[in-house]
Amino acid sequence: MDTYLIKGGKKLNGSVTISGAKNAALPIIVASLLAEGTTVLHNVPNLKDIQTILKVIECLGASYEFNTEHNTLKIHVNSLKNAEVPYDLVKTMRASIYVMGPLLARCGEADVSLPGGCAIGERPVDIHLSGFEALGSTITIEHGYIKARVQKLQGNRFIMRKVSVGATANIMMAAVLADGQTILENCAMEPDVVDLGNFLIKMGAKIQGLGTERIIITGVKKLKPVTYSIIPDRIEAGTFLIAGAITRGNITINNVIPEHFQACINTLSEMGFVISGGDSSVTIEPSKKLQGSMIRTLPYPGFPTDLQAPIMALMCTIPGISVIIETIFENRYTHVGELRRMGADIEIEGNVAVVKGGKQLQAAPVLMSDLRAGASLVLAALAAKGQTEIRRIYHTDRGYENFEQKLQSLGADIQRVKGGKP
Ligand code: UD1
Description:
Blueprint: E1 3-7, E2 13-17, H1 22-31, E3 37-42, H2 48-59, E4 63-67, E5 72-77, H3 87-92, H4 100-107, E6 109-113, H5 126-134, E7 138-142, E8 145-149, E9 157-159, H6 165-175, E10 181-185, H7 191-203, E11 206-208, E12 215-218, E13 227-229, H8 234-246, E14 250-254, H9 262-271, E15 274-277, E16 281-285, E17 294-296, H10 308-317, E18 321-325, H11 335-341, E19 345-349, E20 352-356, E21 366-367, H12 371-383, E22 387-391, H13 394-397, H14 403-409, E23 413-417
Parallel strand pairs: 2-14, 3-13, 9-10, 17-18, 21-22
Antiparallel strand pairs: 1-22, 1-23, 3-5, 4-5, 6-8, 7-8, 10-12, 11-12, 14-16, 15-16, 18-20, 19-20
Uridine-diphosphate-N-acetylglucosamine binds next to α1, α5 and α6.
């Protein structure tokens, strides 16, 4: 297992190019299964999660060529077979459940291992399944597998009991080839869902209302393969802005859509950082007067839960009190114990975290518990005094492309030690 060694205290300076969005690429790769022929995707990040979803679509009959140097992925799809998506793949990446929508649409059957809970909470998939039922499928759970069957999907009206990125994407992928009209209510408005919708529209799907709470889909008989470019990763963008902020450096992130992480920009501005930028770049600079802030994680366009752990590391270094209310996942404070080991003063009461900031963080051996918790520890280490050793960095490998290379190019002292301690 690889380890990071980070010597903190260096200001990051310079510019960095943000990669394609993992959470848009995952459903879009799966949606390519909806059309026979060759789909070409640009700006696909070379990440562990992407390699995992490629294994998943391969086991359903697709083949692919991934040019990782140019981030271009070609996916070849002919007939599709419903093969069981094994637990080993689903347990490493919950997004494997995305194959259910396309499999039901094209084969009328889907057998996928039921994902268990994970480090950040229980994470049920009931909304995905009720959506497929609303479109006429029968669902049973047998020996840990979800088995969905349908003769032909039928359009229907479905109200999601909670805003869910995954369920909105999955049900949309099923409904595009259903008979008649589907009206989805209480939809996720995340840019990743909109990007998937735009990809489906380019393939020939009829979808209205993307980026709103109500999406209306009129089923079509067939979709065609297309060439498409994935949007930039707003969570990676936010993470690098926070890396600039926590080291009080001056950095510019390129190839971004600032509107997609406006909530993060607003919070950093409230804290006193000076943010400027153009259509596709954002620059962050420190200011003399910094102050604590309060955030509440919410569905888009609110503050994203995926930036909660990263911004908490920053809050530890800002004078005054900061408060976080995590409303999306019930167990998303696993980084707190590790940040405390680095000298942070954080109190947790239920889903509320109170950070007493202005502390000089100190190096300590720490463990990543999930992807974004891992990013938070890397950020804390960049600001800490001494050399921090971070273990289980396979978590950040899942979601940050060339993480250490990008940080090094900004002046960070970070090294990957191969085969470090578990
Ligand atoms: C996606 C993102 C993840 C992000 C999350 C919230 C991907 C691959 N992952 O995850 O990085 O943290 O959105 O922005 O895109 N829920 C249910 N039943 C369901 C589905 C969800 O109760 O059937 C609950 C979840 O437990 C959670 C909330 O709804 O409390 C939101 O989850 P959801 O938006 O579905 O997250 P994911 O799509 O899994």
